[in-house]
TrEMBL record:
Belongs to the UPF0162 family. Pfam families: TPR_9, Transglut_core2. This is Transglutaminase-like domain-containing protein. Residues 48-194 form the Protein SirB1 N-terminal domain. It comes from the Bacteria. InterPro entries: SirB1_N.
């Protein structure tokens, strides 16, 4: 089956992000299509089928939140060996759902997506928890009786003290109740794209990856305005001086009322970009 072109792929991502109930797995797989030229519609279907297959291996309605967490840990963490390690932070594939499904390795947030999508298909009360620096999953009522599990560690149950330790280790700050609130699908996708941007930022030769991660982020209904600035700078860095300069000027006009110094810097960068054409 032929691969979608860039325009069709981006339109599909934007449309999926604007659905009343966004399909988290589909959005993650469409991110993967940006990175993997070999991923086509057949590959998308195969990934969804694999999630269905894994869900079919869970027991029917095993019980309460603890039972669901334990069942997922046995199936995904033990039987199928989904987990992560330090080396996974160095791989772009650790942020791509179809690759994580194949390798059984990934970043905490992608492993959590696998946990959530498999559990959801089986009828579990599951949700994502975007702890600072480490994504985990919750089972049960997020505002009542619930348990947390860490898919990066094979589904290890997390006590409140464990969660506080993870947060303290990442930020030095204490755990606050708001950190345990469920993360929505679009928030999860934006965080995945932020991880990809961070991966590419550490590799100056991969501005191509950083650019598409920024451009997908800009297609989400809600995103940081600073991403427009980053995209403009990337275009200039990649040699598209005219388009980058125009976007720097547009950004300056938008932020000038509240950030005049930032607007001044952006206009200076736009002039410098245009000078590269002379």
């Amino acid at each position: 089956m032929p691969r979608m072109n860039d325009t069709s792929r981006r339109r599909r991502f934007a449309d999926a992000a604007r659905e009343e109930r966004p399909d988290l797995a589909l959005l993650c797989l469409l991110v993967g299509m940006e990175a993997d030229t070999g991923l086509d519609e057949t590959g998308l279907d195969e990934a969804q089928i694999e999630l269905d297959r894994l869900a079919g291996q869970l027991p029917f309605s095993p019980g309460g939140p603890e039972d669901w967490a334990a069942a997922l840990a046995r199936l995904l963490g033990e039987r199928h060996d989904f987990r992560g390690g330090p080396a996974d932070y160095r791989r772009l594939g650790s942020s791509l759902l179809h690759t994580v499904l194949r390798r059984r390795r990934g970043l905490p947030i992608l492993l959590s997506v696998v946990w959530m999508e498999v559990a959801r298909r089986a009828g579990a009360p599951v949700y994502g928890v975007a702890l600072p620096g480490h994504f985990v999953v919750g089972f049960g009522d997020p505002y009542g009786s619930h348990v947390l599990a860490d898919p990066f560690d094979g589904g290890r149950p997390l006590s409140s003290e464990d969660a506080a330790t993870l947060v303290s280790g990442a930020t030095g700050a204490p755990l606050s109740p708001s950190m345990l609130s469920p993360a929505g699908p679009l928030d999860i996708v934006l965080r995945i794209l932020n991880n990809i941007r961070a991966w590419a930022s550490a590799r100056p030769e991969r501005t191509d990856v950083r650019l598409w991660a920024v451009e997908l982020s800009l297609l989400l209904p809600s995103h940081p305005a600073e991403l427009r600035y980053e995209r403009a700078q990337l275009l200039v860095e990649r040699g598209d001086f005219m388009t980058g300069a125009k976007e720097l000027e547009d950004y300056a006009e938008v932020v000038e009322p509240v950030q005049p110094d930032t607007a001044k810097t952006a206009r200076h960068e736009a002039r410098a970009a245009r000078a590269m054409l002379n």
